[in-house]
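To: structure desk
From: M.T.
Subject: fold request, one chain
Message: Could you run this one when you get a chance? Sequence is below, nothing fancy, just the single chain.
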Amino acid sequence: MNNMRFKIGYSKPPVSPFRRGKKMPSKFLKCFVLLIFVSILSCTSQDEEQIMPIEGKIPDEEADSIMVVATTNDRLDYEMTAVHMYKYYDTKQTFVDTVFVTFYNDDGTVKSTLRSDKAEMDDAANTITGIGNVVVISDNGTMKAPYAVLNKNTEQIFAQKGVTMIRGENTLYGEEMVSDMRLDRVEITKVSAEGKLDNEEIDW
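Reply: Done. Structure tokens follow.
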């Protein structure tokens, strides 16, 4: 059974520069009120421009500075940290910003890590989709792409929209890539390469 534990952090509110009992100067008060008013207008404008992960739908849950620990039958599956989270209960989707995920082997050692600007976690499909500056690192190399889907059922990564695979001094570029989560066996389409390559090294 797959279980998740959440740790959520919140920032302390800023301390007022004025102590109780001290009178705020009238000129400063006017400037201060004007500054707050301008800030509110600015925040309102930014909120109106913000596009929610599922357009037109309000998340059931939101949180900042989160840590997710996922286990399967008491075995550590992965740990994820993110700056912000949006969660939708009915679609079983979770969207997160500024993401770092560590995946683990059955013996508790690190299998690979993933970081990206944003990610979507689909509990129904059991996938994690990295969006924007996706970087996957393992003992077998480093993969970079703007978009990648990790299927935890098949233990596969599917990256597209331009892929870079780095292993030692060798670098492969391609349009799309399919690999296991350890970056052990890699298949890339429309390949170009840099570095010292021989036939065995090309067959990743």
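Reply (cont.): Confidence is low (pLDDT under 50) at residues 10-20, 27-52. Let me know if you need anything else for the meeting.
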